[in-house]
Design goal:
Layout (H helix, E strand, L loop, with lengths): L3 H13 L5 H26 L3 H7 L5 H21 L3 H4 L2 H21 L3 H29 L5 H30 L2 H21 L12 H17 L8 H9 L2 H31 L4 H29 L3 H20 L3 H17 L1 H11 L5 H16 L1 H13 L3 H24 L1
Helix pairs in contact: 2-7, 2-8, 2-9, 2-12, 4-7, 4-17, 4-18, 6-7, 6-9, 7-8, 7-17, 8-13, 8-16, 12-13, 12-15, 12-17, 12-18, 12-19, 13-15, 14-15, 14-19, 18-19
Length: 433
């Protein structure tokens, strides 16, 4: 009969023959981080439909100023994506994201105590800078931790946070404002920020090789996949930032991805910023109904992102998913704008947002396969930053159209046109296979 020591030794040897799964823990942490980031963004979309907040800020009945709150956030966000994305190479993604979270926590505190619209705008700008640092680091983590054949699913998981958070936050924040007032939302977001800060600092590493919890088998599996990819993808010519930029500038497919994502984000941020107000003001839903219906597009987006991430990995192609998502989004947004039924409009816009979301994980997977590993944070930061900076005009433009025409229809048609532009651009990569 074997001794206890023999059994323990056998268990240790057997477990050592199995690859660890630290990359799974990492992707869950990245999902949590993205969710908290989007809680902060949802907050202002809900407040844009709250009369008490608008009166306290002195912007009740001024749609241009309401749109400005999201526009300035996006300008800061886009600027930080482009200008601060090299922090991923200088400090590593772990330290860079922790700095980012600290900045947006300060922004939440300032937003919760201010009585001035000017200070609120400054807090929005600071939030944009913090979250702009964070976003490209997600791609840096994915590129280093996941072999190419798993990236579609990995990108889908963390990207689900951009939809899961609004799905939860829309009704939750609506209820919280009704019970405790609009300022409490900022403090809820501040406390939530501490969760990813702890998880990232104590439970992640910049690369699998630096993690003490990754065993040899998992490390071998990851690095073999990365080595195979490195033989196919053009290598950056130098470790220097400007040399790596040159590699991207010369890659016309990279620029096609940027134009695609600019148009995509014009639709996303336009809808994200104005959907609660549209449902409440233009379609006549109550405050409670608005909160519930505003979450529906993001519930569908979670399902669509998960499905697109899994299916695109199975198919091995990503551009067709981007193309189809934009065509469906354009059709649903158009019919949602012209249909007479309020319920039908809400449902169509929800399906359109779900379809739009389905194209995001394939888009980032496509980008990660087009550029060298050393340029990933810069490439992802540039794509997301330029798209955010340009699409920053979308909430403001929609507010202007509402102010001039007294109707939301012009803003919705603008988003239809943006979806069609994105479909046209990505069709080039669909044809090229």
């Amino acid at each position: 009969m074997p001794s206890t020591e023999t059994i323990k030794a056998h268990v240790e040897i057997t477990s050592s023959l199995r690859p660890s799964r630290q990359r799974i823990l990492l992707i869950v942490i990245l999902l949590v981080t993205m969710m908290v980031a989007f809680f902060d963004r949802v907050n202002i979309s809900i407040l844009a439909a709250n009369d008490t907040f608008l009166r306290d800020m002195g912007i009740k009945g001024h749609p241009v100023q309401i749109g400005l709150m999201m526009t300035l956030f996006l300008l800061g966000y886009g600027t930080a994506n482009v200008c601060f994305s090299p922090l991923g190479d200088l400090l590593g993604p772990r330290k860079a994201i922790c700095i980012a979270i600290s900045l947006w926590a300060v922004a939440m505190f300032v937003g919760g105590i201010t009585a001035s619209f000017a200070v609120m705008i400054a807090a929005r700008l600071l939030l944009g800078l913090g979250e702009g640092i964070h976003h490209p680091m997600q791609s840096k983590y994915i590129k280093k931790w996941f072999p190419p054949q798993e990236r579609g699913r990995a990108n889908a998981v963390w990207n689900i946070g951009t939809s899961l958070a609004p799905a939860i936050a829309m009704p939750l924040f609506t209820w919280n404002i009704a019970e405790f007032g609009w300022r409490s939302n900022f403090f809820v977001c501040l406390v939530l920020s501490l969760i990813p800060l702890y998880l990232l600092w104590f439970h992640t590493a910049d690369s699998p090789r630096e993690s003490k919890k990754v065993n040899a088998l998992e490390l071998q599996y990851i690095e073999e996949g990365l080595a195979k990819e490195a033989k196919v993808v053009e290598k950056a010519s130098s470790d220097l930032f400007w040399e790596n930029i040159k590699v991207l500038v010369k890659n016309y497919r990279f620029w096609l991805m940027i134009v695609f994502y600019v148009a995509d984000m014009c639709v996303f941020w336009g809808m994200f910023s104005w959907l609660p107000s549209y449902l409440k003001s233009a379609r006549g839903f109550t405050w409670t109904q608005m909160g519930m219906l505003s979450s529906l597009p993001f519930i569908l987006a979670v399902l669509c992102k998960a499905g697109a991430g899994w299916l695109s990995d199975r198919v091995g192609r990503y551009a067709p998913f981007c193309f189809g998502s934009m065509l469906i989004s354009a059709a649903c947004t158009y019919f949602g704008a012209i249909v007479h039924s309020n319920i039908a409009s809400a449902l169509l816009l929800s399906v359109g947002m779900g379809a739009l979301a389905a194209g995001t994980p394939p888009a980032f997977t496509l980008l990660q396969g087009l550029v060298p590993v050393r340029t990933v944070s810069v490439a992802a930061g540039s794509m997301n930053g330029i798209a955010s900076a340009v699409s920053a005009a979308s909430p403001l433009l929609i507010g202007f159209l509402i102010s001039v025409t007294g109707s939301y229809a012009g803003g919705l048609f603008f988003m239809v046109g943006s979806s069609l532009l994105a479909a046209a651009v990505i069709s080039v990569l669909v044809i090229q296979k």
